[in-house]
Each structure stands twice: as structure tokens, then as C-alpha cells.
Amino acid sequence: MSTVADPLGTLVRTGQMAALTGHRRRRIVRVLRARSTPIAERRLAVRVAAAERGASVDAVPAAAAEDVGLALRHVHLPALTDAGLVERTEGGVVAAEALRSNPWIGQLVDADSENWDAVLSSLADGQRQTVLAILEDRDDATSVEALARVTAARDEDSSPDAVRAALHHRHLPALAAADLIGYDAADGTVTYRGHPDLPPLAALEG
Asked: H-helix or E-strand containing 87?
């Protein structure tokens, strides 16, 4: 099995990070990652419904399996297919190579804490990842001005002023809402909080 050179960045550029937002989609991915052969959509729906109910597959009512199957067929599987995470074949649904070659996938789908959707949504942006990577190595609060300069230095197409505005209006509020950082807009300072299920961003860099 090959691995991608920039696993976290690839998840963002391909839209795979955004596609993994949602408890049900991550359950789908967990089922498929554990298999090497395709699974029929109906069987997949039963397994997902069982996981959601904390029950055995034999205890899933037919109506519940049908409801989950409709959602899989019309919402979740198309999104995961478009993101290149799953493939739909005549034999059923199977994990695409991306699910097996990107080491971040397992980290992201196995965690399922209460605010994990907000964490993934926040990470689905390259500049926010850069901000977190900068902050995670700092024990003390960092000024937004300093953070903007360091972030801009890592992106030759951005200026400190443009980055500062993006941080203030978009990125820092989103990261704070996911509780990944502490952001004091009045003082203009930022502190790293992280998440117990989120490994250091440098840990899986290519």
C-alpha cells in the first residue's frame, strides 16, 4: 500500500476532509476500511444502523435499515464517492485507495467525540491548519499580529495584512468555536488548546 506525500493537505485539496464531517459518514468509512471486498448497499445500511443503535445487525428493524439505506444511496455515498473515498461497483460499495493510503483517515474517522464535526470542519482549510501548526508549539499566548506575520511567511501568495483580516474575521472564530484555540479578540491574543483526539499536526506530515 502506498502512502501520500502530504496526507493532511491532500484531505483538504480533494474535499475529503469536508466529506468526513458527519457521524454517519464516518461510520460508513469505518465499516468499509475493515473490509477488503465490496459490500452490498443494503448490508452496509444494516451495519451502519446497528452501529448507530448500539445493537447487533440482527436487531435492526427493517424500517430503520431502509431509512438508513435511502440516506446512504442519495446523500452520503454520492458525497464520499465524489471525494474519492469510496467506489460503487456492481458488487457493492468498497473503500477507495485513498482510504487505505492516507494515514490521517484512521485518525479522523475513529475519533467521534461530541464536537468532532466542528473540529473536522475547522481543519478543512489549509490556512487554519497552518495556524494550528504554529500555535501547537507555543506555550504562551500569541498576538494576532505575530501570528499573521508567521502565517504569511509560510504562504508566498499572502500578505500579513490580508492574513490578519482573514484570521480575525474567519479562521480564529471558527477555530475558537471548535474549542481548538482560545481567542481573545479584545486583547488580540490566541492560545492553543488542541483536542484530545487530534494528534500533533506535524505527526503525520509527509
From this structure: strand 86-89
Range of the domain at 34: 7-110
Whether the predicted model's global pTM rises above the 0.90 cut = no
Q: How far, in Å, CA of 17 to CA of 81, rounded?
A: 13
Q: In this predicted model, what pLDDT tens digit does every residue of 93-145 receive, in sequence order?
A: 999 998 888 777 888 888 878 889 999 988 888 899 889 989 998 989 999 99
Same domain (yes/no): 154, 89? no
175 neighbors 163 (Cβ within 8 angstroms)? no
* 128 and 84 housed in the same domain: no
57 and 126, same domain (yes or no): no
4 neighbors 204 (Cβ within 8 angstroms): no
DSSP H helices, the chain, are: 7-13, 16-19, 23-33, 41-53, 62-71, 77-82, 97-101, 103-110, 116-123, 126-135, 144-153, 160-166, 172-177
